[in-house]
Write a structure and sequence with these properties.
With 194 residues, the protein is an alpha/beta fold. It is built from eight helices and eight strands.
Length: 194
């Protein structure tokens, strides 16, 4: 996981208000897990593909609610004040209908031009009161020190799903991309040892 994306949670937290209802897409991904933990002082709604597989872990990280993408619009149409998207694509497109007067922040790298693209395509029509931006930061030594301290103090949990020798990089890649009998059963980061 890149330190740039971890520090998004720290910087986002600095600009959010305690009354914010925050949606995190990709909540069980590497970045999403950190966001859920760092923003736990707010009403955090964790959006996932499978609630049955992930609710227990996300609740343990203090998510207020866990919801599947397919149920999101019916349950929460327009009532988020902040959305942090880590997925992009159609999930990000759908975020516009979930916020009326607030903000959408995407950190998914292929979404760098989403605001302009979505406005041109009409996806963001009528959403003039929504502040939307692509967000990436340069990590600083202070960011990394803060993250390390939170981990050391056990205030931020890191999940290592499986460990491989560096020689097994191809097998690990296949697992991460659904081409293995372990696909979908490994939670947490894939770690390589030398």
């Amino acid at each position: 996981m890149s330190s740039e994306k971890i520090s998004v949670a720290t910087q986002f937290n600095d600009h959010a208000q305690s009354s914010d209802k925050v949606l995190i897409t990709g909540a069980t991904g590497g970045v999403g897990v950190f966001l859920v933990q760092k923003l736990a002082g707010f009403k955090v709604v964790a959006a996932v593909s499978s609630k049955s597989r992930t609710e227990e872990i996300l609740r343990s990280l203090r998510a207020s609610e866990v919801i599947e993408y397919t149920d999101l619009h019916a349950a929460h149409g327009g009532d988020f004040t902040s959305i942090v998207d880590t997925i992009g694509g159609t999930v990000l497109e759908g975020c516009w209908s979930l916020v009326e007067d607030g903000r959408i922040v995407s950190i998914e790298s292929a979404s760098w031009n989403f605001v302009k693209e979505h406005r041109e395509r009409g996806i963001a029509a009528g959403k003039d009161r929504v502040t939307a931006l692509f967000f990436i930061v340069e990590p600083t030594q202070d960011d990394l020190s803060t993250i390390s301290a939170l981990i050391d103090q056990e205030r931020l949990r890191v999940y290592s799903g499986i460990t491989f020798l560096l020689a097994s990089v191809r097998y690990a890649y296949d697992i991460c991309h659904g081409r293995s009998n372990l696909a979908g059963r490994v939670r947490g980061k894939v770690v390589f040892t030398m």
